[in-house]
Fold this protein.
Amino acid sequence: MKNIAESQKKYLARDRNIGFSSVHPLPCLIYYIGVIIFSMMIKHPLFIFTGLVLTIFINYIGDEGRTLKKSLKFYLFIGMMVALINPFISHEGNTIIFYFFSRPITLESVVYGIVMMFSLLIILFVFISFNQIMTNEKILFLFSNISPNTGLIVMMILRFVPLLKDRIQDISLIQEQRGISTKEGKIKKRLENGMKILNVLIAWSLEESIETARSMKGRGYGVVHRRTFYNNYRMDKRDWTVFLVLLSLIFLIIVLHGLGYGKFEIYPKVGNILFNLKDVFLYILFILYMSIPIVLEGTDRLKWNKFR
Amino acid sequence: MEQIQIKNLSFTYPNQKKKALDNISFSVKEGEFLVLCGPSGCGKTTLLNQLKKEIAPNGGKEGEILYKGQSIEKMDRKIAVEEIGMVFQEPEAQIVTDTVCHELSFSLGNLGYSSEEMKKRIGEIFNFFGMENKFYDEIKNMSGGQKQILNLASVLCLHPKVLLLDEPTSQLDPVSAKDFIQMVYRLNRDFFMTVLMTEHRLEEVFPIADRIIMIKNGRIEYDGRPKEVAKSIYDKKDKLYMKFLPTITQFYFQKEKNPAIGNIPTTVREGRRWLSVIDINKIKGKEINSKNFDSVIMDLKDISFKYVREGPYILNKLDLKIYKGEVLSVLGGNGTGKSTLLKIIGKMFKPQRGKILSNDFKIGYLPQNPMSYFLYDTVEEEICKEKENKDFRNEKFERIIELFSIKDLLKRHPYDLSGGEKQKVILASILMTNPDVILLDEPTKGMDVISKDVLKHIIDKLKNKGMTVIMSIHDLEFAAENSDRCALLFNGEIAVEDIPSLFFSRNYFYTTAINRIFRDIIPQGVIKEDLIIDD
């Protein structure tokens, strides 16, 4: 019963199938890789801040920000810690604000801490979206194309983890009747009992895996050297366009940034936050890249409204 | 033409003297529906495994098996996998991956089929089974019956010519079992697939099989069309194998002095027809003598229970009284909450709402899957080390061993026992704690008629000791035969509750085969033993 409720939730996320979540897994993966590269590479506060705002917006599109809201406090806490701790650890930089136990606290390291916090938050936030968009099915698809055997192992693990979890609940319930409980008694006793329960689980699962192995052999596992995979996903014209746009933007942004576009000096002295023409150009490219999921969602919604 | 020929096949498992198969010869025609039958341990599964060369166990093998005139050992691996498909007993253990889509593409992927070919075949299968929208479903949320159908579908993707089915319905509830067998029958009839099936519940397959082979100690005991086999069992007065026949057939042989093959009834329809030609005045019903139980030991009032906060109630305002010393069967379909109710009675779960008034009593619980119970390496330890490793090897231990007659099993590992033996060991271990109430969760699952008889005796013994037995059960015949009271669980409530003869005779659909045949003349006749033949 519990499982049914869970799977329904997952089902909804999987079958959203609109905007970015309907794009082929490969461009999706590329997008997330790009975001992570940029968030670590670019240090300019305006870029990073804009990026953060956009990832929040992407999260809002995904599930109206529900998952983000749940874990926001924790993420902010981690971010703040990074921002606070950095000035106390790193004492580089020329502009000294004050001394803390005769150690200099510099403006540079404060700024660097804040930039680091934003970068980290972008990665964390975008990871929430990654989890929603890249379902098991899609990750598996990417895996299997690289190595079919790894793909199979992942599929088997995806089956076994929940199965073992259910089983251990079952066993604990029944062993409690026999006086083997992990819920009461001395810690040593509880640990011992836990081991016993684990033993039962392992013995039972091993016993069953003999049957699984037979079933695998009976269905021809190992007959062909390289097994094949069922392809759920096909790149259509839009997917190719998204793919090419993403790749060229990543390439452009990395190269231009290397040439000094959008550079922001922190050490040894905090540089000028104001944009010059070069920076504006890169900023536009960056916004373009970051908002691709938003654009895709928007066009899909417009079409949908027209259809209705 | 003979598709499969088995010539003088003998097989001995390693380190064993006794032959598991002893000089077996028969051949199977293409498109034949053949059922292999016999008590557990008779060698029927061993025989079936020999036909699937990938999984055939090692051991001393003599004789040969030919497939289309060629020895199966010399068959091309790919062709062997494709043309001979097999479904096993445990629905859960055969599944390899997490979703329906992956499971179906597993077999095709193993043989290196292209994605396009997979798409075509899987699409076809989905259409055939009518499960189009289940493609991405996670297997863990499916019922046992659905899992077994999935296992069948996954084998069918390879377009097999022969289907080997090893007790495929033994772990399923009766409704799913019927669905599964009907599906196999359809494959046999519409696609000319050869079916070799082992089964110990002949009620369903008897009317549709072309041929039945009964095996005894590794040898073929009977071989022929179903009714011929039934007749020769009658002629030989073979009491053991008589039990495997459908109930109505057994009753026919009790009543009829000179049975003729053509008249032997095997289904309810044939049973009704037979009734119309005989003198029904000679069949009388037994008096209903129900025992009265009056001391209530547990009173469940308005019990509501659910597993997840947002989910629906599994049990909803359920009322039930439990009397001291009775055997109560809780019946109901899959997922209606029978096991949940048992666990609430056993105080393993606490209901969210409602009240339980109960005396102070001790409970013993027999889990559905015995594997979750065993902790030790030998049966002996399992029984005498009941609580906290204290050794209880005493007089009581001896008495319980005697009661269950398991003296021979004491030194064996619990995992090596058969299903029935495992149950006995668990019950013995439970009895060491002196319980007043024993809860049995699906005790007849996967059991043949003989083990069911043993279980019946055990229940009688427990009852004689003054214990209350509550079981959740799918098997209507067993419930009718062995309980003092039956309760039907539906929609979270007890829908009907009565003594078996009234419970079943008032039901129209949810009742035993005997009742469906005799209901017009003897309404209270629910099992064979309720009917008396008057000469």
Observations:
- The radius of gyration of chain A is 26 Å.
- The CA atoms of residues 27 and 273 of chain A lie 33 Å apart.
- Confidence is low (pLDDT under 50) at residues 1-5, 10-14 of chain A.
